[in-house]
Amino acid sequence: MAEKLEFDVVVLGGGPGGYTAAFRAADLGLSVCLVEQHRALGGVCLQVGCIPSKTLLHCAEVAEKAEEAAEYGIDFPPFELDLNTLRNKKEQIVKQLAEGLDRLCKARKIRRVTGRGVFQDESTLQVEGEKEDIEISFRDAIIATGSRPATLPESPEDARIWDSTAALALPFVPQRLLIVGGGIIGLEMAQIFRFLGSKITIVEMQDQLLPPADVDLVQPLARKFKDRYRILTGSRLNRIEPRDNGLRVSFGGQEKEEKEEFEAVLVAIGRRPNAEDLGLENLGLSLDDQGCIPVDERLRTEIPHIYAIGDVTGEPMLAHRASHQGKVAAEVIAGQKSAFTPMAIPAVVYTYPEIAWMGITEKEAKEQGLEVLKGKFPWGASGRALSSGSALGVSKALFDKATGRIIGAGICGSNAGELIHEAVLAMEMGADAEDIARTVHAHPTLSETFALAAEVVDGSITDIMPPGKKKEDKS
Ligand code: FAD
To answer: Is the pTM for the entire model greater than 0.85?
Structure first.
């Protein structure tokens, strides 16, 4: 006999989307049940994504900064790495944050159910529990089941072919590592495994790394990367043949195929929504052509009392999108007039230097036939960047020529992921170049570089020559 429970809201999936939705719904006075198949909360982000990867990237950055200190006359001896301590530290951080989520759940009197949930009909979720099945009746439901790594078609089964989850477990440090995919996850992993001692080859199908980002934003990073990694753009992986001593891999462009052996291959070619096996057919809910659950701006599916949030609803698959959507879904259920209509969702690549962008990119503006005014400030002209060894960088801001308002921005450089939020706020507030240029920024700071990019468009730039001025002087 199944145990029967009844709640105002059931949330399926305990990642950043699901737990945020559950917390907000409980805070708004609703009775909430949170169903997660794993014992620990946090989803991909906390368990096998954002947090473990950023912990390891932090270590890679520390090592790199120590190396760079030689320019300032500070010489550290080469570092020695204890892989077990590193693994334990990463796991301890994840555990600490997961325990924090458990406490927040308890304090809000949210009922936790551990097991896989499947919808039986429009008001019932069945959970296969560890001891017995549980039947949960609900008034509203939020689907927050996230995503999983995309796999290569016809890839052999082999423990040396990793996805990001396998790689972050640090099973061993391969001497030669092939990374398939030069997107955010691929580049972050390259940085981590270089630090650990691997020699890395990256194959990327498109003609640039980080295909969605503007090429001038990627350039400073690409310049640094070309001495560190073998990067093959416009190249695809064709075959992997497992051998005793390694993986024999064929890859290449249209003209030439190469064969090489690697100790491990990391596949980072995107993520797929977890929308199968949820019993959606019992609800009559259909998926879009990417396999995602379509929602409106209030996060309602085709069935108005069933909501979906986070990665399962599609791109951009980012934790901050999931958590913001989670809040909106809970507020709509509680009767508030909320909607998820952000003007921009920032994307950050946590390499060293970092890359971050928000709003429209220059290439998207071109595709849309939108006329933009562009301001760009090279970090080589920033006192703070130079003094802190961060001269490799650029800040740029894009303004709509018709309205004068900021519609996009990108930063490549140290702490770009922190700095980008000024641009996001400026866009949400409808700021123009003058608003940003006249906002007094402390000197010397890296955030000045964003204001200086706006000054280029405002026409008030003095830190570099105004665009066109050199030409005018010559004539
Ligand atoms: P998820 O975090 O995927 O959580 C879904 C949960 O639902 C899981 O815990 C799963 O077990 C559970 N579940 C699924 N089906 C069922 C079921 N039937 N019953 C019960 N439970 C179920 N994003 C960023 O914003 N910044 C980053 O720096 C970043 N770094 C990343 C690094 C890596 C290596 C990876 C892989 C991802 C990274 N991401 C990052 C993406 C981020 O992790 C996801 O966007 C985010 O976790 C999505 O949250 P979510 O709540 O939608 O789903």
So the answer is: yes
